[in-house]
Design goal:
Order of helices and strands: EEHEEEHEHHEHEEEHHEEEEEEH
Pathway: Cofactor biosynthesis; FAD biosynthesis; FAD from FMN: step 1/1
Helix content: 25-40%
Distance between the termini: 32 Å
CATH superfamily of the largest domain: HUPs
Catalytic activity: FMN + ATP + H(+) = FAD + diphosphate
CATH architecture of the largest domain: 3-Layer(aba) Sandwich
GO molecular function: ATP binding; FMN adenylyltransferase activity; riboflavin kinase activity
Structural class: alpha/beta
Strand order of the largest sheet: 1-6-3-2-7-8
Number of strands: 16
Family: Belongs to the RibF family.
Radius of gyration: 21 Å
Shape: elongated
CATH topology of the largest domain: Rossmann fold
Largest sheet: 6 strands, parallel
Number of domains: 2
GO biological process, one term: FAD biosynthetic process
Strand content: 25-35%
């Protein structure tokens, strides 16, 4: 998969390949988004001409209530890894979110046409352009447009907003059930201490069961998101991790939450409970 920083001015699709464009905000990548990707792949497989590629347009930072938010659920790189695993051909990441919020809906359509977009896949509630005036009816005037029904759970729309709320409440298992891949962050370790990017919404203070991928090796363990610091405890780790080494930390479930300083630490009971959890998963 190729990742492009999309500035809305330059033509990115220089090969003049026919694009099937998946549209949405994609702050997270949940089961509703998976339905969009699945539909795009079905369309691609029907085409006899192999010059059709699937592209996905996403915002680097989310838009909430018509404004760009400083906080997001998943880092761009985490989302890109998931999309690469799903074999998306191109990812267009819009960095200047404020600029696209000012663009007329018709201008946005022109940008898509300039990049050889021929078919569009989006959800039934997709809106775009200044004041969100663009909708699926406008898209249908210019592209072969495929609309995917909203995914719901208990009559509620599966959305990044819902998943954000679950993560903030520490309900990792429930959030993972709605995500394409488990909730994860990319960070660095300094003697197994780690930090969250300031742009991320943090899970509730507590102890979490995690898998960490370091140098292509996966380790089970648990992570403390504490009152003053964050620490990871990994089983069977036999080498020193450079503080420059990226760590992909996948959250599996919550073990317990931290309310007071007395609870703020990884204790022997936590380690034993984590061992039992991973043994049951084997």
């Amino acid at each position: 998969m190729k990742l492009y920083r999309f500035n809305l001015k330059e033509k990115i699709n220089q090969n003049d390949e026919n694009l099937i464009m998946i549209l949405g905000s994609f702050e997270s990548l949940h089961l509703g988004h998976f339905s969009l990707i699945k539909k795009a792949k079905e369309i691609q497989n029907i085409e006899e001409d192999k010059n059709w590629k699937i592209a996905l347009l996403m915002f680097k930072n989310p838009i909430r209530n018509g404004k760009m938010s400083d906080k997001k659920l998943l880092q761009l790189k985490v989302r890109a890894i998931t999309l690469a695993n799903l074999e998306i051909d191109y990812l267009y990441a819009i960095e200047d979110v404020e600029e696209i919020m000012k663009i007329d809906a018709e201008k946005f359509v022109e940008i898509l046409e300039k990049n050889n977009v021929k078919k569009v896949v989006c959800g039934e509630d997709f809106r775009f352009g200044f004041s969100r005036k663009g909708d699926i009816n406008l898209l249908k005037n210019y592209f072969e447009t495929h609309i995917v029904e909203l995914k719901k759970i208990s009559e509620n729309k599966i959305s990044s907003t819902l998943i954000n709320e679950l993560i903030l409440d520490g309900k990792i298992k429930e959030a993972n059930e709605l995500l394409i891949e488990n909730y994860a962050i990319i960070t660095n370790f300094d003697r197994l201490k780690f930090t969250f990017s300031e742009s991320l919404n943090l899970p509730k203070k507590g102890i979490y069961l995690v898998n960490c991928v370091i140098k292509d090796y996966e380790f089970h363990g648990l992570s403390l998101i504490g009152l003053n610091e964050n620490i990871c405890y990994l089983f069977d780790l036999e080498f020193v991790i450079s503080k420059h080494e990226e760590v992909y930390m996948e959250f599996l479930d919550s073990l317990r939450f931290i309310e007071t300083k007395k609870d703020d630490g990884i204790f022997e009971e936590d380690i034993e409970n984590a061992k039992k959890y991973f043994l049951q998963k084997k």
